[in-house]
Amino acid sequence: MHLSRRQLITSALASAALPQAAFARDVAEITWDDLIPPGVAYAEIIGEGEMDERNDYWRPVFDDNATKLNPNLDGAYIKMPGYIIPIDLSTEGVTSFVLVPYVGACIHTPPPPPNQLVFVTTDTPWPSDDLWEAVWVTGQMQHEIQSTDVAETGYVLRADKMEVYVW
Fold first, then answer.
1. 3-class SS at 144?
2. Is the pLDDT reported for residue 166 higher than 60?
3. Which long-range contacts (CB under 8 A, 24 or more apart) does 61-65 make?
4. How far apart (Å, rounded) are the C-alpha atoms in residues 73 and 118?
5. Are the C-beta atoms of residues 97 and 150 closer than 8 Å to each other?
6. What is the C-alpha separation between 143 and 159, in angstroms, rounded?
7. How many whole angstroms separate alpha carbon 128 and alpha carbon 97?
8. How many CB atoms lie within 10 A of CB 91?
9. Could you give the CA distance from residue 85 to residue 7 in angstroms, rounded to a whole number?
10. pLDDT digits (tens, 9 = 90+) for 100-137
11. What is the spatial distance between Cα 45 and Cα 36, in angstroms, rounded to a whole number?
């Protein structure tokens, strides 16, 4: 069998696209409510708190419900919106951050509970001039309670894709 140059090129291009198609995944678009385990009401994750009079700061006191995570999300490939609180910032942009549900969370107010915060890492820096934009983050979600400089987070996400959230 003899293949023309055009057939070879077409075949090579199709083969190059094949691995990407084979690794394509279904993305579950989730909201912040999805981070709470089924059967736990949002009102049950918000703890009471205490005022630090000296530092004029409200310290939330969370119970065990604040660290309960949704078992359906461990290992899930998801897309979710949120705002960036930078952790690792360089001139190229942000490569790790806490994804939060609203602007200013963790900065000027007490942080949300751990099951409402996602620690995100990415190989492609998000431009530092877009830090106040709402973003879509797509990647694989894992359960992992960890402490950052900003707050304790309940989830970890390895971002494959990020884009500006359009209302």
1. strand
2. yes
3. 62/113, 62/114, 65/40, 65/113
4. 12
5. no
6. 15
7. 12
8. 6
9. 50
10. 998 877 666 678 899 999 999 999 999 988 788 899 99
11. 8
